[in-house]
Fold this protein.
Amino acid sequence: PDNSRMTSLTLIFVALAINSVAYGKPPQRIVGGNLAAQGEIPYIVSISRGGHHFCGGSIISNRHILTAAHCVTDIRPAQVSSLRVRAGSLSSRSGGKLYIPEKIDIDPRYKAGETTSPHDIAIITIKGPMTLDRNTKVIELVNTAPRADAAVVASGWGLRSASHRQVPTNLYTVTMKVVSSSVCKRSHSRTLPNEQVCAFGSVGQGVCMGDSGGPLALNGKLAGVVSYGRPCAVGYPDVYTSVHHYRNWIRKIIADTKN
C-alpha cells in the first residue's frame, strides 16, 4: 500500500519498523499517550527477535500470549524458539522475565500479506508456565463485542509518530473510544467485518508502528488486538481484531496445551 493507505503496525526489525507504512506490518507505537505506571498494564508483553522489539501481546493464560497474525506469519516453525517474550516490565529491553515460545497458532482464515485482512489473530504458546505476580497477570476476555462510545485503553512500545525514528523502550498507554462500524467505514472507505472493531481518541492520539498485536482493553478485559491503521494518529480510527469472536478458538488452543 502507498503511504496514504492502510499500514500494519509491526516493527520486526528496526529498519523494517522505520520503513513500514501500516500497523498490520510489524510494529507501531502509542501516539499522544501517557507513560504507564508499574503494574498498570500487567497483562502486556513485548515480543522481540534478535534483541529488537517488534510487536506486543497479551497474557491470556500462564502459557499463552494473544497477538496479531501479521506479527508472526513470517516466522517458520524452526524459528519460533528464536523469539523472546518479555513480561512484567515497563521496558521492552530489560526487567521482568523472558520466556521462549514453543509454538505459534494463527487463525487459518487469516490472509497473509493483506494489510486489512480480518482474522488477524494468533496465539504464542511458551515453554513452561509464566511466573504470575502483581506485574504479570492474565487478562480475561470480554464476553461481548464492545459498544460504540465505550472507553478503551491501548498500550504498547510503538513509535511516537510515523516520522519518529527512535524506537521507544518505555510502555505508553492511550485512552480512546470505540467507533461505530458505520463511522469506521466512512473513514477507511471499506466495510468492516464483525470480527474487527475501531477505536479513536483525537488527532494526535492512537497506535503506531510497533504497537501491533498489543491489547485494547475495556474495563480491564481484553476486547481487541492492534491490527492496522493509517500511520499514525492522523485523524482516522485504528482497526483492531475483535477478541470476542475468537473465544472458542482461543479456548480450544489453551485446552489442547499440555502443562
Summary: Confidence is low (pLDDT under 50) at residues 1-5, 12-23, 25-29. The domain at 139-244 is CATH 2.40.10.10 (Thrombin, subunit H). The two ends are 42 Å apart (CA to CA). DSSP finds four helices and 15 strands in the chain.
